[in-house]
Specification:
7 strands; seven-stranded parallel β-sheet; Sc_DH/Rdtase_CS; Rossmann fold; oxidoreductase activity, acting on the CH-OH group of donors, NAD or NADP as acceptor; 8 helices; alpha/beta; globular; 263 residues; NAD(P)-bd_dom_sf
């Protein structure tokens, strides 16, 4: 009989994590959760001031080693610098929260090619570049875990989100491919598929009239939007030893949105 003390715990002491899009939203929640669990952190974001402030805050609060690295996931040089920062911090890279992304809501007939390319560059190519660079490091050291941020809109579709849905569906497929290729190298690759989450971004979009939060809450069977902390908890589970036999999966956390077949 398995005893509670025999079960894997979410103790990340001695592990080094890279979090992309770390300065705000889901990335910030992931960084906070990892620091609380004892992980050393490299925070990678275009917002240099925000990531540096968070790095200092987490180091002071939890006694973990932290570093901040400014750059874009769509830039190979920036991505290489972020992975190198992990090596400089602890000599290891054990976990990647491959989270950075942007929104892209436009009617398809009016979607400019530049906007399409930007969404694909950040939301799909950026995920690949980070995973590839981290995967090379992990292969050399004998293993690691990558958790990509997809979306429930990588599993189901919605109007006026052609670029976003295409990119996130690509992340779901990419996650499977990398998991299959890298399993023998000790690297697990999974994804989370968040539904609508209460963040500063959704609040701003609601204020601009681009989102109707009440209508969204009414559509979710759970009757509310998710929180960044709930998404971070799912990501940490996938990164933990409790998920040691899980790879190539996308775990959707959407309050029942994709399961509900009626409008």
């Amino acid at each position: 009989m398995t005893r509670p003390s025999d079960l894997p715990t979410q103790d990340f002491t001695g592990r080094t994590a890279l979090v992309t899009g770390a300065a705000s939203g889901l990335g910030r929640a992931m960084a906070v959760a990892l620091a609380r669990a004892g992980a050393d952190l490299v925070l990678f974001d275009l917002d240099d001031a925000g990531s540096r402030a968070l790095a200092e805050e987490l180091s002071a609060a939890h006694g973990v080693r932290t570093a901040a690295c400014a750059g874009s996931v769509a830039d190979e040089v920036d991505v290489a610098r972020a992975c190198a920062a992990a090596g400089a911090l602890t000599g290891r890279l054990d976990i990647v929260m491959n989270n950075a992304g942007i929104g892209a809501n436009h009617p398809s007939l009016d979607l400019a090619p530049a906007l399409w390319r930007r969404a694909i560059d950040v939301n799909l190519t950026g995920v690949f570049l980070v995973a590839q660079a981290a995967g090379r490091v992990m292969a050399e050291q004998g293993g690691g875990v990558i958790v990509n941020t997809a979306s429930m809109y990588g599993v189901v579709a919605a109007p006026e989100r052609a670029a976003y849905c295409a990119a996130k569906a690509g992340v779901v497929a990419l996650t499977k491919v990398l998991a299959i290729e890298w399993a023998a190298r000790g690297i697990r690759v999974n994804a989370i598929g968040p539904g609508y989450v209460e963040t500063a971004l959704t609040g701003r979009m609601a204020a601009e009239g681009r989102l109707d939060l009440e209508a969204l809450r009414a559509r979710v069977p759970a009757g509310r939007l998710g929180t960044p902390e709930e998404m971070a908890a799912v990501a940490l589970f996938l990164a933990s030893d409790a998920a040691a036999y899980i790879t190539g999966q996308t775990l959707v956390a959407d309050g029942g949105w994709t399961a509900y077949g009626y409008l």
